Amino acid sequence: MTQRRGSYSAKNKLVLNRDLIRASIQSIDYVIAHELAHALEPDHGARWQALMNSLLPDWQRRKSELEARLL
């Protein structure tokens, strides 16, 4: 897994990129919440975004910070 930070499979398996160990706790929390949200919503549509807003109201900031670090 070189490009992705994590994935959630249809078989309920969560996989995280080992490079996340260098990320902040807030970034790791974001990736885990992002992937687990896919257990309920498979795509990044409005329902997924609403779920993320309820889980991590600042998820977009965390995402931006993580992307800025190029993980």
Explain how this protein is built.
It contains three helices and two strands. By secondary structure, the chain is mainly α. It has one domain. Helix 1 packs across helix 3. The longest helix has 13 residues. The chain is globular, with a radius of gyration of 12 Å. 13% of the residues are buried.
Summarize the model shown.
The protein has one domain (6-68). Helices cover 46% and strands 8% of the residues. The protein contains three helices and two strands.
Element layout with pairings:
Elements: E1 6-8, E2 14-16, H1 25-37, H2 46-55, H3 59-68
Antiparallel strand pairs: 1-2
- Per the principal axes of the C-alpha atoms, what is the gross shape? globular
Strand order of the largest sheet: 1-2
Helix and strand sequence = EEHHH
Overall pLDDT:
89
Q: List segments where confidence is low: pLDDT < 50 over at least 5 consecutive residues.
A: none
The share of residues in extended strands comes to: 5-15%
Number of domains: 1
Question: Structural class of the helices, strands and pairings?
Answer: mainly alpha
Number of strands: 2
Helix residue percentage:
40-55%
How far do the termini sit from each other?
11 Å
Provide tags for this entry.
71 residues; two-stranded antiparallel ribbon; 2 strands; globular; mainly alpha
